[in-house]
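Subject: Sanity check before I submit

Could someone independently write out the structure tokens for this chain? I want to compare against mine line by line before I put it in a report. The sequence has 741 residues.
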Amino acid sequence: MAWHLFRLGRWSFRRRWTVAGIWALLLLTVALGATTLSGKTNDSFELSGIESTQAFDLIRERDPEAVPNGATARVVFQAPDGETLADPANQQAVADSLAALRTENVRSVVDPFEARAVSADGRTGFASVSYARSAVDLTTSDREALEAARDVAERAGLTATVGGDVLGVEIGGAIAELIGIAIAFVVLALTLGSLVAAGMPLLTALVGVGIGAASIAALTGFVELSTTTPALGTMLGLAVGIDYALFILSRYQAEVRQGRPLEEAVGRAVGTAGSAVVFAGLTVVIALVGLALCGIGFLTEMGLGAAFTVALAVLIALTLLPALLGFAGTRVVKKQIAAATEETDTDQSSGTSRTLGRRWIEGLARLRWPALVAGIAAAVVASIPVASLQLALPDDSTKPAGSDVRVAYDLIADNFGAGANGPLLVVIDTAQATDPAAAVGTATERLLALAAEDDSNITAVIPPITSDTPEAQQAFAEQLGTTQYATLTVIPQSGPANESTKDLVAGIRATLSDLPDQTGARALVTGVTAVGVDISNELTEVFPLYLAVVVGLALILLIAVFRSIWVPVKAALGFLFSVGVSLGATVAVFQWGWLNELVGLDTEGPVLFLLPILLTGILFGLAMDYEVFLVTRMREAYVHGTPARQAVIDGFTHSARVVAAAALIMVGVFAGFTLTDDIILKTIGFALAIGVLVDAFLVRMLIVPAVMLILGSRIWWLPRWMQKVVPTLDVEGESLARRLA
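---
Independent answer below. Compare away.
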């Protein structure tokens, strides 16, 4: 393989204009496609087959005009001190405001007085607005009408704000990307010693991200994708694109400093470091594509989109980077660069040229057992918060303080209880009921009895019929006969993301579980919290399969790369420490509120429900990246005859500086996304930044070399029968060296 990559790198160097032209044409083509074909993305999380979405499907089937997942808005009004909304002038202002928001897409508007949604002091109330389209399909005029409604109320002297899913919060990904690029440029300049060299990994990464993001944008014209899909692809594409180019460029500088011609140096760099890049990229792609095993649409989209950008990063590092090196000539390997960045083993006895990495690994060799114990202990202690991990869908309480959505949420929570922001919907399917009205009545009575319990966590149960008059009952019976379903609303005391609300969902389902046996009807519980509970349960069930498949495939790949059993096993076990510390830190900051101001949060709440499986997939791939880059140089020294423990020292000396720089770049890119307003990207960015930081510096530079120094040559053990089965991939470039010699 190294020989083929050598030829690819050399060809790209020679045909630099052709290679650069191909990538430029591809970037231009997909950019044109993105501008002409791109559609809209959405923030919804849906999964077919679970109870909460079955309820929506039932409503659509029985009542085609209903839009159970249509956009919703809440307009919150508050009268000045000393006044109430019931005052004639204020009541008229509310009516005028609600009249101003009506558009052709508004299905219904329930004012505060009709819904009894006025606080006890009479000052605060909210109107519920339902739309005939989802939030992503609403028009500009729909949103402008909401703004106009707010202006009408404020001109009349009321305080008004709009909540719900109609008005989203801008992700602000561009700022996050700029922060990551700025950090990367500084680290690259210090590591490579040249502004020209520092600019090359950034340029290649931006080309890859541009092609990936534009391709995903063009795809949205045909498929509705999650808003997070292109953002996650950009995040990962930028991080790995810079890192992969850095590893090849660093090796190229080392080859040139040994006196090799530029063309041969490029070929050798791509043949050796490029081999590590290929297999590192493969582990990331395997982990991301494996997310499709979960069977959850939005998670599959995110995984495939990110895997596509990672694959692009690998291809660009192997082809476009050598072409750019051809254009740059010797400007990336000046003598002063060598003085600044050379990692040399010469004159080790005198210690005059010993690098920081060399001193670290030599000290680690002397204290390998204490270092191993201390490293494992630190990882275990930092992982303790995982024991209290709580998962939920993000709600409006996590929006930026001061935003309309957050202000509306807080006003409703303060005046009506947090549960009013996330009512639960109980759908009674009466198609098989012998007496539909009686079945609905039975369900209502059970929920009212549940609400009467001391610890029920229920504020109110709103039945489908609120009047006992014969006319109302007759109208309800006729409606029930047509649609064959009824809905009850349960308002919890706790907020949508609260653990108590999740327990309430389970309690309602248990209370109504025998309804089919008693009446022939069935009850389906849905709502934001119910959807989060159901998806979390599905993720928990599929997680062992996902982990087994992804880790199994990665282990097979790493066994082939290193021709060892214990190196891949040790790598996988070390990853557990990384993900444990990452989740522990996320719980401490986002759930417990420790130092959460540093990431722009002013509240605490459960962790994003899809984080554990998403973090596991992405971080596993990235962890194997550093394992490949770090241990490949150790393996290279070992197969060339260096004793096992000395090979660990020599390999670490050569690769530690570049691996540390690559990790800092990736941490900077991920950390930049913690400054966005989108809680999903904020959580993912923070967890990945901590995970990479821990994996690179605690696991790969402390625990891993300590284990390898303890085991010595036994770390490279491979059963005899496997030696005949496992292919020789020559990542170390041994056959390449023989050919060139």
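---
OP: Matches mine. For the report I'm noting this point. The domain at 2-37+171-341+356-388+533-729 is CATH 1.20.1640.10 (Multidrug efflux transporter AcrB transmembrane fold).
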